[in-house]
Amino acid sequence: MTPAEPTAIFTRSWSLYDLLTEYNYMFHREIYKGIENLLKLRVDPGHYHLLDLGCGNARYLAPCLKHVAPAIYEGVDLSEAALAEARGYLGELSAQVTLTRGDLLEAIESAGKTWDVIFTGFAIHHLMSDEKARFFRAAGRCLSEKGWLILVDVVREENQDRDSYLDGYLKFMRETWTKVPQHQLEEACTHVRDHDYPECLSTLRGMAAEAGLHSSRLISRYAQHHTLVFSRSTLEKV
Ligand SMILES: C[S@@+](CC[C@H](N)C(=O)[O-])C[C@H]1O[C@@H](n2cnc3c(N)ncnc32)[C@H](O)[C@@H]1O
To answer: Is-contact 149 233, C-beta < 8 A?
Structure first.
């Protein structure tokens, strides 16, 4: 893997990420239960349009959507291997499903329609700061009036620099991801060291506000793994 390819680990060996999530090392079970509960608060079940950026194989979002189905689901990811699995996981959904191989930033910047929910799970931290700001601006442009941007991602502490964040996260991986075979754990650590650029909460909120998404809620936090929802209008029930 070259450092210039942040998604190579997902393209080449999707199964490693699947293994980590199988052991729940990144709290997917708790996080996605929270997403399901959040989606249940929407006033437009069965009718809303959902864009999933960096959808991977959609293994954890798909079961949530069975309970609160959108009318339209579109997933975008660079990994063909992940998308091939997503077709299976999303197969039973009543929604109209489209899966597109492509770059998430290009996809949202060129979106020609509005979305009621823009979801992105553990993907935005691969973008550089200016790209994240572009991501929020584009999301702000194509969210419907009562739309939600749901962001699941790793987040740095306020005033924590990237190096000290990485020290902490790599320590967390080495101490808790004990069932991952050693060579795969090292591959995952290299990926994180080379490609993870998480922001702190205030930076994410600032970027969102500049994009017109002035309301935000922290839905959950499990160690460094956060779920946030952003919207244009006040998030009353959330
Ligand atoms: C850690 S996985 C997360 C998958 C799933 N969303 C989840 O929450 O479990 C990150 C996914 O984002 C995709 N990804 C990362 N950067 C991307 C980009 N610029 N454009 C499209 N997909 C991207 C990767 O291919 C990978 O499938």
So the answer is: no
Residue type at 108 in one-letter notation: I
- Look at residue 117 and give its three-state secondary structure: strand
Query: How far is the centre of ligand 1, averaged over its atoms, from the C-alpha of 112 (Å)?
Result: 22
Is residue 117 a contact partner of residue 55, using CB atoms and an 8 Å limit? no
CB atoms inside a 10 Å sphere around CB 228: 20
Model pLDDT, residue 2 = 41
From the CA of 104, give the closest atom in ligand 1.
Answer: 20
Distance 126 CA to ligand 1 centre (A): 9
What the chain holds in terms of domains, given with CATH numbers, is: 8-231 (3.40.50.150)
Residue 228 phi, psi (nearest 5): -125, 150
Task: Render pLDDT for 103-154 as a digit per residue (tens, 0 to 9).
Answer: 999 999 999 999 999 999 999 999 999 999 999 999 999 999 999 999 999 9
Which pLDDT tens digit goes with each residue over 27-43?
999 999 999 999 999 98
pTM over 0.85: yes
Q: CA-based diameter of the chain, in Å?
A: 48
Phi-psi region of 118 (alpha: psi -120 to 50; beta: other; left: phi over 0): beta
Ligand 1 neighbourhood includes 54 CB (under 6 angstroms)? yes
- Note whether 130 and 64 are within 8 A (CB): no
Amino acid at 76: V
